[in-house]
Protein 1
Amino acid sequence: MADLRNEQITERSPVTVLGGVGKARAAYYAKLGIFTLGDLIAHYPRAYENRGDVRLLADARTDGKCAVILTVATEPKSVRLRSHKSFLKFRAFDDSGSCEITYFNQDYLKSRFPVGSVYRFFGKVERVGKRYAMTAPVAEAWTEHTPLPPFCAVYRMTEGLSGAQIAKDIAAARMLLEPISEDPLPIELREKRGLCTRAFAERNIHSPVDYHSLCTARKRLVYDEFFHFALGAAMTYKRAKAHGAPTCENGDITPLLRLLPYRLTRAQERAIADIRRDMACDVPMSRIVVGDVGCGKTVCAAAAMLIAVQNGRQAALMAPTEILARQHYEELSAQFSAMGYSCELLIGATTAAQKRRIKAALAEQDPQKRLQVVIGTHALLSDGVEFAAPGLVVTDEQHRFGARQRARLSEKNAHAHLLVMSATPIPRSLALVLYGDLELSKIDEMPPGRQRVDTFAVDESYRERLNRFIEKQVSEGGQVYIVCPAVEEEEAAPDEVTLSQIFEDGVKQEVRAPLKAAVQYAKDLESVFPNLGIGFLHGRMKSAEKDRVMQAFAQNEIQILVSTTVIEVGVNVPNASLMIVENAERFGLSQLHQLRGRVGRGSRKSYCVLVTADTGALGEKSLARLRTMRTVYDGYTIAEEDLTQRGPGDFLSTSADGAVRQSGGLSFRLADAGADVSLLTAATEDARAMLAEDAALNAYPLLKNRLDAVFSVEDGLIS
Ligand code: ADP
Ligand code: MG
């Protein structure tokens, strides 16, 4: 065993190398996505018990736990019960009162509490008449001159694993790894940015000795997340400026324009001109088209794809969700078949036989039989999807894809032209991080006749009126989206503090309104509107089922669609006229802006209603944020505002539903917690400088190793 430790233990060792962790516990850890020692250490607390919240007995919290500092007044007495049970009781006091303290089956504690000793007790203080009582509180010996740590980690748990067990295993993993791990970050960078060592950070994020150490630890870990992300992003987009891309000089998009019921806007024309110029070169295009929701990016993609196929090349379009892929397919396959080109859909739900047929058609050597356009999800990245004549790859809603997927896309299509479309306006300071060296075409003009979506922020007291408004919209022929936050998020208890609370507001608590759980909500609505068709959509549903619901909504078979944010990206149902967002205070402004963009896409006058809990309970900050939405309609302004208010986390997250965030890889664990932009900017600057000097990171083997570990996690490729 000793030999094994010295030679083989690394952060990639399985958790079973820890004493006491057998198959059974490893299986529980697997449920939390924890397989290795490294995963275990990266299982950062979801919140902290605020043991620094020291109060007098008389002022103890009534809604949860807090700490009291008490002097033991009576000798602990143990009382035996039948069946070998017992309890221990004693009294302790502070300046405001006296408290009875009880422990069960812990007789050995008797000698721990001599009369006159002082302890910090943490737990729930019960009030019994004029007296107080605590049952089984955490007790820590208190002395005037050595302060006790104020925060104690609370972990995301799963059945079969207690928080204490997790804490113990994490500590054991750290003990094993700390002596053998070197800090992968060069010391110059650490000094330049005032960062602590990785070891200090890992120790103090789990068991902070004080507030300052926790801040220092978090800063380092967030920096690392950003730094890795920036390195990954820069390496992803480092496309060979080499020649060797298919020149697509003979493009004529008039056949496409003839199919459109509208004229292109000038901004669309400019973007298409940029694309046409890029594609005519033998250096692969790396361009991103950014434009607010509804500005008409799809037609720019269609034009680029048409240019590719006119030049005997193939074009692929990759969307982040099946719903979106299907929607693109419906629109584009109609256009391409009208122009005489073949077009297929390849998604996870495509049958195996169909997939085989499509793969064969893509790889077909005979240009007459070859499939020309394929639209899909990241299923397009799976093994066996090979293009005989790759010309163009378009990705829609780019930053929703995982970094690994993007890297793979680039790898697989090293010489193809690449066009990225993003509907999420990105603040300038983040553009470099997210888009690296991509060239930008900005569509800054909306198609004519677009109306503004009137926006309201209301609280629960408007519920009745809101229901009547829903009825009115539907009776006039409109349709309604209702969006609730994702349900799976684990909530911090009122007596716990999360990192974002610690860093945004000090240790002050902000009241959080109860979540409207989407499932229950849809049920309730059915009783409110027994005569209306109500559909329900969430990220965990099977894709076939999602599609069925979405189709039903698109065809107005259902009038109300309750969903989590899976509908956020790109979905187009022009008849929808009302967007209701529940628990709106939970969303970022850019997210709200995206959601609002789902309505007002047709001729109907449209509305967006942001519903919050009783406004009195919300912080001033949250209210101010929502007020912004009533007056600001420009995505870029909103994005900048969001960045200053919430930090960059929302822009960096890799999944529409938040689901990918926890699956390892380049998910952000800490950076979401109200991280600051300056740290991101610093990390990006450092990453680019490092790569400029040493593109393969040869001088930084530890860092390279670390990146390999981070990037090797496959984020959900579907085969
Ligand atoms: P997004 O940029 O959000 O992807 P879409 O490409 O889905 O936007 O376009 C939104 C809607 O606007 C579609 O119904 C599309 O047909 C329409 N549209 C696009 N360009 C124009 C235009 N120049 N004039 C009028 N309608 C347009
Ligand atoms: Mg779109």
Protein 2
Amino acid sequence: MKSLPYFCRGEVIRGFGRGSKELGIPTANFADSVVDKLPADISTGIYYGWACVSNGDVHKMVMSIGWNPYYKNTKKSMETHVIHKFKEDFYGEVLSVVMVGYIRPEKSFDSLEALIGAINSDIEEAKVKLELPEHLRLREDNFFTSVPSSSLTPPTNTASTSQTILNGH
Ligand code: ADP
Ligand code: MG
């Protein structure tokens, strides 16, 4: 995929409520304005990379890009599981991510146990791959230290939200 690594940031919105948190694997959903800017060569599936909330620390992440049932599967969704234990939810805050590599396509599973097992193996794969020197370098990228100050206080309307979105690099 020629668009990788892919840098993007935007507001965390409420998702479809499919209970990811109950599975122990919460996924922060990006606002539509971020999803709409995804390059065409970035297909659905599971990705790994780096993520940071507002101006916090940079953590490893796994991201699922899939078809959003809320829009009758006509629109994509981007859901990031940050590999870190947060004390509180961060709805409305700015999430910055760099997608570094691709793990696997979307799949359907016969059981919840099989799904959880697959996600946990995605997380393990992400942890290992991100230790490669070429990937560790991206963690130090200026992108993560240059979160626009206007985006540190959650914007109150969608017009100002879209101005904080930064795609490409
Ligand atoms: P939703 O359907 O609203 O996305 P989830 O059950 O997927 O609900 O929970 C996602 C929310 O959990 C995120 O928007 C964020 O505020 C919070 N959260 C807490 N810890 C994490 C984490 N490690 N990774 C992603 N989101 C997290
Ligand atoms: Mg979610």
